[in-house]
Amino acid sequence: MFSLRLALQSVIKEKWMSLLSMLSIGVMLFILVSVAVIVYNVEKLTARLPERLTVMVILKDGVTSEENKAVLAAIKAEPTVKVVTFVSKEKALDELRRSLKKDDFILKGFADNPLFDSFDVKIKSEGVRVDDVKRLIQKIKSMKAVDDVEYGEALMDSVYALKSGLRALGLSIGIVFVCSVTFICYTTVKILFYRHKEEIEVYKLLGATRWFVRAPFFIEGSIIGIFGGVMGSGMLMGFYYYFLRKLVADIPMFAFMSIPVQFMYLLPAVGMLLGLGGSVLALGRLKY
Predict the structure, then answer these.
(1) Where in the sequence is the domain holding 7, given as residue range(s)?
(2) What is the pLDDT of residue 254?
(3) Fewer CB under 10 Å: which end of the chain, C or N?
(4) The CATH number of the domain where 81 resides is what?
(5) How far apart are CA 3 and CA 38, in angstroms?
(6) Residue 54 phi, psi (nearest 5)
(7) Do 193 and 102 have their domain in common?
(8) Helix (H), strand (E), coil (C) string for the chain
(9) pLDDT, tens digit, for every residue of 147-158?
(10) Same structural domain for residues 176 and 270?
(11) pLDDT confidence of residue 235
(12) 112 and 186: one domain?
């Protein structure tokens, strides 16, 4: 209790330096968690990508009904497939005419139906990875009755490349900012320690233990870290209510974005741990 009182008195006495350290930590933790939010939302988006993916299996011209049924049965047997729908070339032509509307005169130049029979394949939404989808595509392409497979390969590869890049970037930024926050606490506690050097000398002469001398600084570093985390949570909350909501209202395509509530509660705890870590590093090699 005495150590806590000393720590609070020191924070209040050195209020401007403590406030500057808290604000710096808050900004860094806010940037760190903002990157984490972006990575989290991209992960969430890519997890839902397979269910939004429609694979079009184009059959060769002149495929018999037996071959058609064999392809259908083989695709349905795949664990990654949710629904398979047969689309005849007549039905595909009717749908194309409806989509063209007044411009359907383009099709009048064809004597025969230029389209092919096909299957529309829907992928399951859970437990399916991009590698699973690619393996499915390769297996379908190897079937004799199949002419080609269309599934938006370029888009899928681009999204997953973005996901991998953001993971690497997020990890790099995370390491840099964790080290930065720890260094701020390290520097602050070390400065405060030397400012109280005369008091510490008195405590030592009175027989104070190493723990008694160091405990207030450990607590002080933790307090600075906690309040830095609280400031970071406040910035994150402001970002959510005044920017993200407005962005979603103006651009609905960003409606999938969200900020997990746990991030807001986690920041003070992360700040406390980093503050304590910086204090331990600052006092670790000192004689006292």
Answers:
(1) 2-47+166-284
(2) 62
(3) N
(4) 3.30.70.3040
(5) 40
(6) -110, 120
(7) no
(8) CHHHHHHHHHHHHCHHHHHHHHHHHHHHHHHHHHHHHHHHHHHHHHHCHHHHCEEEEEECCCCCHHHHHHHHHHHHCCCCEEEEEEECHHHHHHHHHHHHHHHHHHHHHCCCCCCCCEEEEEECCCCCCHHHHHHHHHHHHCCCCEEEEECCHHHHHHHHHHHHHHHHHHHHHHHHHHHHHHHHHHHHHHHHHHHCHHHHHHHHHCCCCHHHHHHHHHHHHHHHHHHHHHHHHHHHHHHHHHHHHHHHHHCHHHCCCCCCHHHHHHHHHHHHHHHHHHHHHHHHCCCC
(9) 888 776 666 677
(10) yes
(11) 84
(12) no
**103-147 tens-digit pLDDT:** 555 556 555 666 777 888 887 766 667 777 778 888 888 888 888
- 124 & 176 share domain: no
Q: Within this chain, do residues 84 and 144 fall inside the same structural domain, yes or no?
A: yes
User: Which whole number is the average pLDDT over 211-223?
Assistant: 79
Mean pLDDT of the region 180-207: 76
Same domain, 114 and 178: no
In the chain, the number of structural domains is: 2
